[in-house]
Amino acid sequence: FPVTIHAGTFTGGAKEGRVGWFEEADKGVLFLDEFQSVSLASQVQLLDLLSAVSNDIHIARTGADHERRRFSVKVILAINEDVDTLLRERRLRKDIYFRVRSVEAFPSLKERLDRDVGHRYLRGLLASYRWKSLRTIDQLCHLEGGWSDMVQTFFPVFLPEALSELASQNWEGNFRELERVAFDLS
Questions:
Q1: Dihedrals φ, ψ of 58, to 5°?
Q2: Burial class (CB within 10 angstroms; exposed 0-12, middle 13-18, buried 19+) of 109
Q3: Exposed, middle or buried: residue 153 (CB in 10 Å: 0-12, 13-18, 19+)?
Q4: pLDDT tens-digit profile of 73-90?
């Protein structure tokens, strides 16, 4: 895992060094997504840093072993595959799994949408993605249809058939895929 690099530590290294992941996340959270794809060698490196009872991580800049610094970082490992399968296939180290202090399983988007009565959850997601991707008010004011187009842009109406069609999809890309589709709808 990257740490702050001293000038000249390796070919191509920045003279002023770089802030590493743990230094940047000090007193906060380091979110490692798609952790099932991390190599076993990198899992060992992370294992050496994590404590089963504390968020404290002691790390030195590359080439400066005597200058260890303490960082307080909560590390969140996100995976999108079955943990038991990953352990059985030896793609996730058991020792790192046991170093993790809590495991939370979240339903997939498909599972959430299957339980979504009246498409309330889906409507909320589409609205939040829509607001996230909106053009500025200044850009909207110049739409051909004027205020009526602007109101429709802010408050879209989704036909029940369209919501049912969206809810019936598999969404293998999960929320990222739905966000892209929502963006394309605007």
A1: -110, 120
A2: buried
A3: middle
A4: 888 898 988 899 999 999
